[in-house]
């Protein structure tokens, strides 16, 4: 791995009116293109940490590097123009139209009007905002629209680094989920280096490449990928903070195609009944999947094949549980426990057969 | 320099401290007309404000009165009071001044009383009603108490305005400290003009401070601190 | 001064108005002129002072105390005081009038700046506004409606106070009031009073219109999504 995009070295922050530390000797590296989520209870210094990166707060001691250069040696105004910033309350300028709000940083940077106009149009499309919103004022927008404008504004000058402080915190859960998904999509393409602050561990798990869990007083408890944190919490605090259903949360992060799926008992329609029964015996089942040239047709039961010559004569029945390779293990588990059988068929690209998944395999993943 | 020293000399000259035209009597006149008017205005405006605030009826009257009251110059009110007093054959001096100051004092007292009562938390009123208080009791035990600080602000505003405008009473042959300024203008006596101005300013500041103190007493005590 | 007090004199004689139409218009203009200068100069003083007091909280109390002191001094006393230095001049009138605008204007400038949403200010800082850009492009525009509200109150107050300057030889419409008082003649008093009230209302409406025109964003309310 090369030089990290953001590096915090032994950073300490003490507010003048407080005896305790807000951030306690924090060191952190964030790689280019990654989303690092700072999460923790209130008073853990997560927002303060973020604000030190663009010098809205200044560290008491320690060093912060962005793209290799020490932020304290840069002009704060120029530094900030190069870093996108989104806060929970958005802070749109009430006296500027949506177009003007989005254009704020490009204007400060002195871009030409035509370039600004093109960029605004591009962002409007990216965030699926409607053109007619551009001439309105922030007071006329819904909460969800304002959030999207806020993020679009932060991206306007295409900064390599984004700081986001609970950017989706002020909207209802349904809108929030939609905004998170949209942002993940956009981030997939843009690959910004993002510092994302939230108090919601589920949001952290969803958005993060890496999560930094902070404790009251600004101490770092664990910094790792969501999967690793869920698999192996560093200590009791982390375990308590990530809460119950740790296994389920982890399953949500693992896709079916990331694990080895058993092939299971498979027969083709041309196979003889005798051959089919042998396959079932091998797997210790009384059924088998019917696969024709890679395409899943369904399953057949041993009992229905009396007096037939090939497996294809019996009518294949639909699996009551289907999962695709793109589903998470958590979704797979859900379809397993809501279906009548203990087995789900795994398919990809429509009906291409991949294998079968059962509760045993999933619980092995939770324990592993 | 010395306009100031002349004024100070004028202020300390014993001649100016005795008789009907002396400083003590002018202060007395000024305070008397102001006190009488504010009390008279309060006797009308407070009950009416309480009633409007309590019932919510006649709010329009309060709003209009306070807006118009703000737009009419006090000098114009004094001017208009003069022909009214003459029409009613009340003569010069006290009555035109009283009418003008009275008209001036009503809007702030009425508005603040109304706002104070209307601003009482409706939940408290409902709770009081739920406990079986009659309208009269709600008004007396709850609304008046809670509105008292706001009403006092109205009385303070009115008092300061009345004391200031009472200076103009000299124009309609009234007494008070304005005499020194108006008469000083008439005879081009700078020392008297400045001395009078200092006295008027001092009285206005004293009124402001005094009423501010009274207002503090009316403020309900908060639990701790 | 003690002319006959005639109880039969009518309140209002229309023929006086037609005979003095020219003077009335002249004084109406004079009145508006004196007011504009006072409010204009008052704003030029109050805005920087208000910005300073907002930024340096320690300055706020002494500044408002001084402005409050000036405001409490009765107008006649202040004008009288000033005449002993600057005589019966427009300068005297304006110094007095300006000092009465200061309390209202400074308070509103500070309140307006305080009303700028914290998050807007933080977002602006985070996006790289310099302190100067923050003041001119964010804080003052957002404080503008509150500052304008102060200007409106100050204007109405000053229109009233201009009448008092008739005692030092200025006064605009106040001249008619003073003349009426001195001659026990009610018609000019009514004309002066009514016109100054109308002038105050007109000025208030015009300033409100100006404020609305300059702050189209202040009226905006959320529209339901998809509505046009």
Plain-language structure description:
The complex is a heterotrimer of chains A (368), B (225) and C (228). In chain A, 34% of the residues lie in helices and 24% in strands. Chain A is an alpha/beta fold. Chain A has a 6-stranded mixed β-sheet with strand order 6-7-8-3-9-10, sandwiched between helices. Chain A has a 4-stranded antiparallel β-sheet with strand order 2-1-4-5, with helices on one face. Chain A has a 3-stranded mixed β-sheet with strand order 11-12-13, covered by helices on one side. The longest helix of chain B has 33 residues, at 23-55. Helices cover 78% and strands 0% of the residues of chain B. In chain B, helix 3 (59-71) crosses helix 5 (94-118) and helix 5 crosses helix 7. Chain B has 9 helices and no strands. Chain B has one domain (3-218): MetI-like fold, CATH 1.10.3720.10. Chain C is mainly alpha-helical and 228 residues long. Chain C contains 9 helices and no strands. The chains are: A alpha/beta (368), B mainly alpha (225), C mainly alpha (228). Chains in contact: A-C, B-C. Chains B and C meet through helix 3, helix 4, helix 7, helix 8 and helix 9 of B and helix 4, helix 7, helix 8 and helix 9 of C.
Cα-based radius of gyration of chain A, to the nearest Å? 26 Å
Helix fraction bin of chain B: over 70%
By CATH, the architecture of chain B is named Orthogonal Bundle
**What name is given to the CATH topology of chain B?**
MetI-like fold
Estimated radius of gyration of chain B: 21 Å
Overall mean pLDDT of chain B stands at 87
Domain module count of chain B: 1
CATH superfamily of chain B, please?
MetI-like
What distance separates the N and C termini of chain A?
27 Å
Share of residues in strands of chain B = under 5%
The major β-sheet of chain A equals: 6 strands, mixed
The CATH H-level homologous superfamily of the largest domain in chain A:
P-loop containing nucleotide triphosphate hydrolases
| Unreliable residue stretches of chain B | none
What number of domains of chain A?
A: 2
Question: For the residues shown, what is the average pLDDT of chain A?
Answer: 90
